[in-house]
Write a structure and sequence with these properties.
Elements lengths: L4 E6 L2 H11 L3 E9 L2 E7 L7 E6 L5 H10 L5 E4 L3 H10 L4 E8 L2 E7 L5 E7 L1
Parallel strand pairs: 1-4, 5-8
Antiparallel strand pairs: 2-3, 3-4, 6-7, 7-8
């Protein structure tokens, strides 16, 4: 068994596609219209077909309160691994990405938390 697909709820799929590809560096994978302006829209790590991230429409009534509660408590919706957290923080900050937590050492891991502009906090992590 392996993880093939995971998802984050996004307010605007087109805006999310731009952020996750142009800013974070993922590549578009699947884009299938589902009706009502929604799409099955995935991105992934260039050169790695193992896992895709679904940029899922946040239209379900339970999503808003759930995401609001996570954000209010500073809890990220998901986490991405990076090789050099400080360099990635500098690169993203230069692109205008807002961080709610700068790079912070926490024992065997360093983390930072960013706002994906689509309703989510995303944690970046570098294992030592």
């Amino acid at each position: 068994m392996r993880i093939h697909l995971t998802s984050v709820f996004v307010d605007d799929q087109e805006k999310a596609l731009d952020f996750y590809t142009r800013v974070l560096g993922f590549e578009p994978r699947t884009d299938i219209p589902l009706g009502d302006g929604n799409r099955w829209l995935t991105v992934g790590v260039p050169g790695d077909d193992a896992v895709e991230l679904l940029l899922e429409p946040a239209g379900h009534p339970a999503v808003g309160p759930f995401r609001d509660a996570l954000a209010a408590d500073g809890i990220p919706a998901t986490q991405f691994a990076v090789d050099d957290l400080r360099a990635e923080h500098e690169r993203l900050a230069a692109l205008g990405v807002e961080f709610t937590m700068p790079p912070t050492d926490m024992g065997p891991v360093s983390v930072a938390v960013l706002d994906d502009t689509c309703g989510n906090l995303i944690q970046l992590a570098q294992m030592r």
